[in-house]
Structures are given as C-alpha cells and as structure tokens.
Write a structure and sequence with these properties.
Chain B: Belongs to the Aux/IAA family. Chain B: This is Auxin-induced protein. The structure holds 2 protein chains of 2 kinds. By secondary structure, chain A is of the alpha/beta class. Chain A has 22 helices and 23 strands. In chain A, helix 6 packs parallel to helix 7, helix 12 runs parallel beside helix 13 and helix 14 packs parallel to helix 15. The longest helix of chain A has 12 residues. The C terminus of chain A is likely disordered. Chain B is an alpha/beta fold. In chain B, 29% of the residues lie in helices and 9% in strands. Classes of the chains: A alpha/beta, B alpha/beta. At the A-B interface, helix 2, strand 1, helix 4, helix 18 and helix 19 of A face helix 1, helix 2, helix 4 and strand 2 of B.
C-alpha cells in the first residue's frame, strides 16, 4: 500500500474507522480510495446482509476476513403470511459451514426467515469458541436437539433468542444441557416453544445468571412457577410470562404481586396467554415503570385492558388486541403521552361481523393525543378518508404506517369512495415515512400520490389495489428510496415492470404474486438484467407449459452479485440467459 | 413492446456476475442496510389506453414449447362466468395455488386477466371463498387465534351447508356440474377462512411441503391437492376414507382422484395430537381437522410394519366388492 507524506498511518485510520458503525457510512468510507477500502475491510467487524442470495459466502468472506457479527435474512417478508411455499430456500447451512471455517472468532449470528438445521446449530456450537449471540427470528427447520448442542457447548453464550421461530419441540430437556458452571446468560427468548421445558433447570439457570436481563417464557410455563423465577432474577428488565392463568387462589395472587413488586428494573412485559383477568392486577406495581407492553395474546376485555394501560404513564410501545376498542384507545391517548409505537391486532380476523367496537376513531384519538406516535400497525374493519387525513395532519412525524382493513377493497365507509385521498394525505404530510402498508379500495391514484410524495419511502406493501400498470409505474418511477416492494393480487403487469427494470437494481427486492405479469415478460427481464435474479414460482408445473402470455403465480426479483442461486426447489424457475435450458 | 427501452445500469448484457468481475460498489450495495437512490432513467412509455399488450417472442435462443402429456388447458374468460365480477373489480380470492390448480386435471385452468375469477370458482366450489395469507397475520398469531376459540367453528361454513363431510361432497359435486353461479356472487360478503397449515412429507422426497387444511372441507379435495403437490413422483397414493368408495362415485368421473383406485405404493397418514400415526380418512372430517398435526405420505411397506395396512387391505376388499 502506497503511503504518501499526506496520508495517515494505517493504524490511525483504523482507529478512526472503529467509531463508524453504521453500515451505510462504512460503505461510503470504503469507496473513498483503494487504501481506505483495504483498511476498512480488514477492520469491519459487523455485517448485515438483507438478502442472503444477493451475495454468497465466499464473496463475503473474501472481502471481510475478520468479522465478529453476521446478520442474514432469507425468505421474502410475505413468507410470514404463507405466501412462500415450503422448500423455497433461505438455507443457513452453507453460510454456517463457510463461516465456521473462516471466522473462528465469530461471536454473533442473527438469522431471519431462514431454514436452520440441527446440523447447523451443532456446527455453531462446536466452531466458535467465543460465541455470544444467537438470534433466530422466524426461522424453522431445527429441533430442540440443536438447542441442546448450543446449550452444552457455548460457554460464553449471552443471548439465545428464538423469536417467532418454528421449532420442532422434541423434549424440554435441552435446558438442562447448560452446565452448572454456565452463568453468562443475559437474554433468553423461548416464547415460541410448544412444549414444557424442564422447569427446575430453568429456575436454576435463571437464578445463577446474575446478568439476565431478558427472559421470555413460553406458554407452557405455568403461572404459579413465575414468582420463583422472578425472585431468582430481580434484575430483570424484560419479562415474557407464560400462560397467565391458574386456579384462583389468594396465595398465588399475592405471591405473584410480591414477586413483580420486587422487579424494580422491569421495563417490558409480554406473554399473557390465556389471561385470567383477576390476575392482571398483580402487575400493577410495575406499571408505572413500563415502557413496553405486549398484550397481543391477552384475550381480556376492554375494562381490564383500560385499567392496566392507564397506569403505564411511561409507555412507549403497546401491542394489544382490538378488545381495547375505541374507548380504550381514547384512554390510552390521554394516559400515555410518551407512546411511540402502537399495534392493534384483530381478535377475530375471520369473522364476518365486527365483534368489538373498534373503528377508525380509536386510531384518530391516539394520533391526536400522543405527540410522539411514529409507528402504527392497525387492523380494523372500517376506515374513511377523513380519518386518514386527520391522522396525517396530526402526526407528520409518522415513520411507519401499516393499516389493514380486514375486508379487501373496502371503500371509505362514509362516502363509499376509494381511500386514495386518505393515504395520499398520509404520504404527503408524513415526509419521513419509511414504511407503508395499504389496504381498502384503492385506484391508481393512490400510487400517483405515493410516487409523488413518498420520497423517503423504503418499504411498501400492497394488496388488492390499483387498476392498471400505471399504478406500479408511479411507484417504481417516483419513490427514490424504495428498497422493498411487495405486491399481491393487483392488476399490475408487464409494461410497468419492464419500463422500470433498471429501478429494480437499486432495490433489494420485488415480490409480486397473483398479479398479471406474464411469463414472457419475466424471461425478458431476466435476460436483460443479468444482475437481477428473476425467480418465477409456479406450483402447478413449468411455466413454459403454458402460453408466454400466461401470468406467473409468483414473481420474486432481487439484485445480486452472486448470480442465480443453485438451491431452488422444483417449483422455482430462474429467468436468466440459461433459463430455457433449465426448463427443458 | 412499444416505446419502452430497458437500460441496464452498466455494461452490456454479457457482463458476468461472477465474483471475479465484481465492482466494490456492487458488493456495497448488496451489503449495505440502506440502499443508494437515483434510479436510472428509462424512457417513458405510453401507458395510454390504446396500448395493447404486444408479446415479443423470447429474444435470443429458441422457444420451445413442450406439449406436455398432462393436461391441455382450456382458457376460461369472463364470458364463462356471466354473473361473476367484472375484470376491474375482480374477485380477490386466490386460494392456495395447489388447491385451485388441482382443477387443471379437468381441463379448466387459470388464465391471464381472469385468473382470480377462475380461482374464485374453484374456491367457491369448495365452500365460501377464501384468501391465502389474508388478513396478514404471522403464523404464531394465526395459530393462537385458532386455539383461543374452540367454541366457534374453525371453518366458517356458510349456514346452508350441513356439517357432515358426506353431504359437503354431495353439494360440491352438484356445484361443479351445474357451474353454479350463485357461488360466485361477489356481492355476498366473503367468508375468509382461517388457515391451518400442516407439514406434509412424502417418503423418498427430501423437501416437505405445507398444505392449508383450512381451504378444504373434505378428504377428496385434500387428496387431490396432495396429489398435485407431489406430482413429480408418479406413484399413486391410496386414500380410502371410511366412506372412501363413496367419494369416487358421488363426485363426477373427472374428479376421480388417483388416490382412490387402490393401486399404489403409498398411503396417506397423519399424526394426531397424541403423537399417534393414523390413516387419513377413518374419522369424520371435523374430527380429523381438530386433531391433525402433520401429514405423511407413507410407503405401503412401512405402513404394513406400523399395523396400518391391514385396515387398508380390508378397505380395499370392501371397495372392490361394492357394486357401482
């Protein structure tokens, strides 16, 4: 490396770089000049790969030889809603194998929507001597045997978080595989496990780990064991209860209340499956210190919810079922002035008629009363342009707005017009909006608004909306910062897609299912854009067994430097130059 | 395509995507959690109403359309469904591809433009129309909703239908033969079913699948779906319900599932909530739904070993002796 009289020594630069943590900034540094690129890549410790197929393990390892922390995401977001067939991909194994060889000092692995096998977990357990953090978010493919390997071998493990994963729960024994000498646990999230864990082992583990800050239990942990656990970890900051129900006995209740009162640092609560309302007051002692409350599994009615929520003056994040109703949200708006994030989930999403008195009014109240509200996920059954307009004007600081009107294509219930103007107001007034999910009756007009105003928009989810290709064209040509676009059941087709092909290389990914994109267009796209992987999913057979003009079932397009992937299952076809050969 | 130019961001079409020719910028883009903006300009296309969809044949290499031996599809258009929604407000139901496309066996299939209408027929014939993945709730949440309310029927069959599996099959066959348009009435408020995804594995096939039992109301349609799902393996799957022989007769000849002719090397089994493996079809559908945890298409030889096959053979005998 050439040194001039004007440049800093390598060591100094490296030291300076160590203060730069954001991925974007790191990328910028690496582009300044060749020597900075070299220095930066040797001292990069943390990498985030938003799409595991956009790059390959050898490429990653070649560029960054000294990583300590890797985050990978696999399946597209719509996999959460069963739109991605089983076997599609997102296999963690090749990555884990490669990293096992290249990064003996790797400390952290975070995977989201990937398929992880027990074998992979065993490799992790045996290969990384200083392994500290394992987060498996919405992953699948492993069993409690894999967890046993982690427990038995990772002496320095700090965090084991299985949030939302699908684990084949063979036995609760794995917890006992943490050796008695193991005391470094700081965070444990087993809320997704179906069966009982060894409760005695759990209690002992909890009480011998003095730095345990986060403990999220699964439903199978009975309520009467909770006080013991809490007493073993009075320093807990985040707790997820198990089932919150038991025989109603006064001693159970007072035991519980006392145990909660002992947790002076508790800031976050979740769990609350099968809630018995009369046990809710046991958490009252900690309400005033709570910043995060997840009651989205708590099937209790409005009065109990209101009582609880109104005590949480410091609340910043609330997830709740629509049992809270408009009245409850009004009280929330009055009590919790620090609220930043609200998610309201449907208690009866498949029922035909509303079962609760939750309407657009609840959201309007919160938007009025909570000045810091910036992140919303709201399921409801009716909405109006007027309400959306009010919300937009109340909360120009909104950054994430996801609205799900349960019945697809529902119009403004007052005027019976499309909700174009309402969502238009949202994108117009909320200038920092980064994430938006649409629902209700929407024409191409809403996309015109989005293309015009959604300049900071990074992720857009669309379902049952739009009239024509113009809609898609507005979004692709207007949203300068768009990274992820996911569309289902919209009449968007070839024209807009092909006209904006170049845009796709600036995005992470595009998903389109049940739209009108023809197989022919997919082939053209794949052939013209070598740095995009254009994948067509069709479970009924090879797409070329139908006319070229037939629409494909599912289309997933993403940019990549790794070329077409080699692990596609039988129902996925790639539209690259060789696609014809592959299909034949 | 009129008035459209596709401009790749750099280089020609021949640029390799292999690592040796990577630019640093490429890797950065891919690794960065935030992407740079500035899309390339593409020429504006005329998106007026006058533009027809012109389909260029695939550019370079040939196109060869295989004429598959399977099904020759007849394309349905909106005209086939006089009372269905118009194309602009087409029905939104898109039931899981496997179940809707199982009709492909019978010369009906999806088409461009009216795909959703056809889907709604297929779906409606199963019962009230259903939408996969809507409302958008994660699997854990959807599961929790199901287990919360045991009192309410998991599958919201509309009031007109009876609850016995047999009668459902009767009604279904009637619907199919009439092309009954009442089921496609989109003014009728749609009944969105809850999902009940279970894993399905077939012996000898490494990759398992998932099937949504929520879109089915009878063993027949489930069998059809599974057959389509695992079509790559040519073995037929035996599937006899306690009324097994009846399915074959009541539902029209077209509908006859490969599963029912008894000549196969596989049987369909399921694991119930007690962890026991049972033959599918022995109990009424609702009971099955409430206890099934996952499915397995098991080799008959293995089923023999598990003691499942004797029951099977007995049924086969019964089936053969029953007059048609």
């Amino acid at each position: 490396m050439k040194k001039t009289a004007y440049s800093f020594p390598e060591e100094v630069l490296e030291h300076v770089f160590s203060f730069i943590v954001s991925d974007k900034d790191r990328s910028s540094i690496s582009l300044v000049c060749k020597s900075w690129y070299e220095i930066e890549r040797w001292c990069r410790r943390k990498v985030f790969v938003g799409n595991c197929y956009a790059v390959s393990p050898p490429i990653l390892i070649k560029r960054f030889p000294e990583l300590r922390s890797v985050t990978l995401k696999g399946k597209p977001h719509f996999a959460d809603f069963n739109l991605v067939p089983e076997g599609w991909g997102g296999f963690a194994c090749p990555w884990i194998r490669a990293m096992a060889g290249a990064y003996p000092w790797l400390e952290e692995i975070r995977l989201k929507r990937m398929v992880v096998s027990d074998e992979s977990l065993e490799i992790i357990a045996k290969s990384f001597k200083n392994f500290k953090v394992l987060v498996l978010s919405s992953c699948e493919g492993f069993t409690t045997e894999g967890l046993a390997a982690i427990a038995a071998n990772c002496r320095n493990l700090r965090e084991l978080d299985l949030r939302e994963s699908e684990v084949e729960d063979l036995s609760g024994r794995w917890l006992s595989d943490f050796p008695d000498s193991y005391t470094s646990l700081e965070s444990l999230n087993i809320s997704c496990l179906g069966n009982e864990v060894n409760l005695l082992a759990l209690e002992r583990l909890v009480s011998r780990c003095p730095n345990l800050k986060t403990l999220r239990l699964n439903r199978a942990v009975p309520l009467d064991r909770l006080p013991n656990l809490l007493r073993g970890a009075p320093q807990l900051a985040e707790l997820g209860t198990g089932a919150y129900t038991s025989e109603m006995r006064p001693d159970v209740f007072s035991n519980l209340a006392e145990a909660f009162a002992g947790c002076k640092q508790l800031k976050a609560l979740s769990g609350f499956w099968d809630v018995l309302p009369s046990y809710l007051p046991a958490v009252y002692p900690v309400c005033s210190q709570l910043t995060s409350l997840n009651l989205s599994y708590a099937t209790v009615q409005s009065p109990d919810l209101i009582k609880l929520v109104s005590l949480c003056e410091k609340l910043q994040k609330l997830w709740v079922l629509d049992y809270i109703e408009d009245d409850g949200l009004e009280i929330l708006a009055a009590s919790c002035k620090d609220l930043r994030e609200l998610r309201v989930f449907p208690s009866d999403p498949f029922g035909l008629e509303p079962n609760v008195a939750l309407t657009e009014q609840g959201l309007v109240s919160v938007s009025e009363g909570c000045p810091k509200l910036q992140s919303v996920l709201y399921f409801c059954r009716q909405m109006s342009n007027a309400a959306l307009n009010t919300i937009a004007r109340n909360r120009p600081n909104m950054t994430r707005f996801r609205l799900c009107i349960i019945e697809p294509r529902s119009p403004d219930y007052l005027t019976l017009q499309p909700l174009d103007d309402g969502f238009g107001a949202i994108v117009e007034h909320c200038k920092d909006l980064r994430r938006l999910s649409l629902s209700g009756l929407l024409t191409d007009r809403v996309f015109e608004y989005i293309g015009t105003y959604g300049k900071k928009l990074e992720m857009l989810s669309v379902a049952f909306a739009g009239d024509s290709d113009l809609g898609l064209h507005h979004v692709l040509s207007g949203c300068d910062n768009l990274r992820k676009l996911e569309i289902r059941d919209c009449p968007f087709g070839d024209k807009a897609l092909l006209a904006n092909a170049a845009k796709l290389e600036t995005m992470r990914s595009l998903w389109m299912s049940s739209c009108s994109v023809s197989f022919g267009a997919c082939k053209v796209l794949g052939q013209k854009m070598p740095r995009l992987n254009v994948e067509v999913m069709d479970e009924s057979g090879p797409p070329d067994s139908r006319p070229e003009s037939s629409p494909v079932e599912k289309l997933y397009v993403y940019r990549t430097v790794a070329g077409p992937r080699l692990d596609m299952p039988g129902f996925v076809w790639t539209m690259d130059d060789d696609s014809a050969l592959r299909i034949s | 395509m009129q008035g459209v130019t596709i401009i790749p961001t750099s280089g020609g079409g021949g640029e390799s995507t292999m690592s040796s020719t990577l630019s640093k910028e490429d890797t950065n883009l891919v690794l960065s959690s935030e992407d740079s903006s500035c899309p390339e300009d593409s020429e504006l296309l005329e998106l007026g109403l006058g533009l027809g969809l012109s389909h260029k044949p695939a550019p370079k290499s040939h196109t060869h359309h295989h004429h598959h031996n399977h099904h020759h599809a007849r394309i349905l258009t909106a005209k086939d469904f006089p009372s269905s929604a118009s194309a602009s407000s087409s029905s939104s139901s898109s039931s899981s591809p496997a179940s809707s496309l199982s009709r492909a066996n019978n010369n009906t299939t999806i088409t461009s433009g009216t795909k959703r209408t056809a889907d709604s027929v297929a779906a409606a014939a199963n019962g009230p129309s259903q939408v996969v993945g809507w409302p958008p709730l994660g699997i854990h949440r959807a599961k929790s909703i199901n287990s919360k309310s045991p009192a309410t029927e998991v599958f919201n069959l509309s009031s007109g239908k009876s609850k016995s599996g047999k009668t459902d099959v009767l009604r279904k066959s009637a619907d199919k033969t009439d092309g009954n348009n009442d089921n496609i009435d989109t003014n009728e408020k749609r009944n969105i079913r809850s999902s009940l995804f279970v894993k399905v594995n077939m012996d000898g096939i490494a990759i398992g699948r998932k099937v949504d039992l929520g879109v089915h109301t009878s063993y027949e349609t489930l069998a059809q779906t599974l057959e389509d799902m695992f079509r790559e393996s040519t073995a037929a799957i035996t599937f006899n319900g306690s009324n097994g022989e009846d399915y074959g007769i009541l539902v029209g000849g077209d509908q006859h599932s490969k599963y029912l002719d008894g000549s196969s090397k596989f049987v369909l089994t399921y694991e119930d909530k007690d962890g026991d493996w049972m033959l599918v079809g022995d109990v009424p559908w609702e009971m099955f739904i409430n206890s099934v945890r996952r499915l397995r298409i098991m080799r008959t030889s293995e089923a023999n070993g598990n003691g499942l096959a004797p029951i099977l053979e007995e049924k086969n005998c019964r089936q053969k002796s029953k007059p048609i």
